Fold each of these.
Amino acid sequence: MYSGWANENAPSGAKCLELLEVTDQRYIDAMLPDDEDGAEGGSPATYKVEVYTGDVKYAGTDANVYITLYGVEGDSGFQKLKAGKTKNLFERDQIDTFEVMTDHDLGPLHKIRVKTDGTGLGAGWFLGHVLVTPQSLPSSPSAGGGSPNDEIESLYFGCNQWFDVTEGDGLLDRELKPGKKPRPGG
């Protein structure tokens, strides 16, 4: 029970709230939910992300590109797609491959979010599509012989739109849902 010592000018009967600085990590861990995004912890997971820049005039960009993967068990958070094997990323009719690492398996993916910061010379970008393939997921007790990726298929996220304030609809940020990959020539 408080007697108004925190504020001598508080009206009679006013309630006070005591704020404590908590520095004991065991107490903090006990008070927080297991995981805010719905995941129950678990092992790290890796996803191969293949970004296909379209084959249209001025399709490439020097802007920074970010991606978020969304699954039924949470999301990856925004991750900058940084140079790997290719030094000049996101050029016309080019495929750039990245690894996105998460602290747990996201479960089946239901969307991705791709955005650019619109900076640099030639900031506009025409994204063709993105392929996402789980690479290293926590092993399951029912896993048999062979590679854990034997039955894992890539998810196709079609786009075929500009990320540019002066082209198309002017958006720099898009959510993409998985779909069927078009057949060659059709």
Amino acid sequence: MPTGAEKLITPRKPTLQELLELREIAEFQFGVKGEYLIPSDILVVESPTTNRIRLIISEGKPYLSIRARDYRFNLHIAAGYVLNRVLPKPKLRVYVKDEYASFVSMGKTLFCKHVLLADPGIRPDDEVLVLDGNGELVAVGRATKAGWEMVFHKRGEAVKIREGARSHHSAIYVPKPLTP
């Protein structure tokens, strides 16, 4: 009989119902077709105490986490690359000044004074993509302010970075081509 810790790290294929539910969450949260963000070859990891899905793995790497409090996705860098390709611009994007892009790509916090441009539709606690001036993904994280406030204010935290493109735990990721 597996212990709680062993059960937590044992990935499995999702059922068809779970796959459809995950795709519906993606459509609700990000406004993109669920098949674009959630491919059918994913693996899921359940919480040992609640038996609910907590992590989605794609190509052997963490792809999306699911928050327990509201059952919404937390982005990892692999899913950020996919979202950057499928979301219309500037939806859920925060652009950082080029001189600070390398700092943020290491997983450091993005402050308002370093924000170049932000989607005005961003609300606090939204999952966002952080890009450099060329539109290249630098990091993914959680907005702490509304998009218009990030640009307007010159003090304070704009985005709490979860994972940078060059952080120590995200090896170089080459996204596979989209196939719905």
Amino acid sequence: MKESTVIRRTSRSLRGAPGRLVGMLACAALAAVPQTTFGQPLPKKPAAPVSPGHEAQRGAATSGENEGDRAAASLPLKLELAPSTFTVERGHAWFVTLPPEWAQFSSNVDDFDKSRLRLTEDGVPLGPANATHAEIREEGRGAYSHWLTALYFSTSDNTDPRKNGRAYVVEIPASEE
């Protein structure tokens, strides 16, 4: 069965479900299929590089962690995102790949609101967090979603984050504050 057939059948069978659930399930279905388009592998996007000011967080490692044990990252995590890593997604949405160890703290099909990731623009918190991807694309205005190693986000004024000169920082705090 083709990937598009699976997604179409899934969305048809869930027509009565709330929009948020349908969007999350569609994202999960896309994440579950092999990363190919028409039989061709998709190029891997590099994880967002760490700015020179945050060398201690290279690869999202934090104090108290072994260099060889990055899979079990400890909190807090903090990363300044490089504008050159931002990719246009659709509408007002932008996309950036986070380091692999951030996925364990992300929202997923079992827990849509799991992520406690905070995104700031020039030090000002953006939100709402854990927004649907449709909300980010259509409304923007700072909405964002941390889904596995992906960060889908919009700027506060829906401008191009590669050109607006603002600094974007993501952080997962050690505890809910």
